[in-house]
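Re: that chain you flagged

S.,

Sorry for the slow reply, it's been a week of failed gels. I finally had a moment to sit down with the sequence you sent. For the record, here it is as I used it:
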Amino acid sequence: MEVAIRFENVTKFFDNAEKPAVKDITLDIHDGEFITILGSSGCGKTTLMKMVNRLYEPDSGRILFFGKDIASLNAVELRRQIGYVVQQAALFPHMTIAENIATVPKIIKWKKEKIATRVKELLELVQLEPDIYMKRYPKQLSGGQQQRVGLARALAAKPKMLLMDEPFGAIDAITRSHLQDELIKIHSKYNKTILFVTHDVNEALRLGNRVLVMSEGKIKQFATPSDILNNPADEFVKNLIQSSTTQTYELGGGI
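Prediction finished late last night. Pasting the structure tokens below so you have them in one place:
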């Protein structure tokens, strides 16, 4: 299986910090995997993910994207190959839903007909009726609907990979569960490599093929959900899992 992302001894410091945000991380993520990155605030999970699309640059080590050192790649071109979804959808308020989804395809000069077809296809994929939602504006949508549009926009230019930074964290539990279901279906259909940051144990175990547990910038365990549940690597991982109140898991949704 091809390696999509390889971290080689990656360390990241921020100014005035006593410790590195990420310390000496080495791991491989294979093409088509759904990786959830789990940990509490400040553990380094978002920093690790943001280095993949060069929003942050490592202070040492290197990151390979499908075999190429990302430091040697044009940052803009790299980001066009990577869809990015954040917690607050970050839609452009002055643009319609169709225009929001079409943002990157327009930049890379897709033909109008191809863009229109892609927008309709993606709205259907995220369970939003195109005829109803294409001409609406973000303020006319609920939080869950906006997040669906954010996901559609991230998929628009057919990226090799999706980075998702706590995308469902600000959404109510029922809507969050529905969005998780849709994401599992999308991953199953397209087999995209996904890195999904969360502090929610249930979400990490439900969605991930493998779960990367982090604390203080280091890897505590990187394993399948069942391995983490049944064979926690240390007391930290054991306590993290036990802190979750949900006892029943639908493991490894991306599988």
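What I noticed first: The CA atoms of residues 120 and 130 lie 6 Å apart.

Talk soon,
D.
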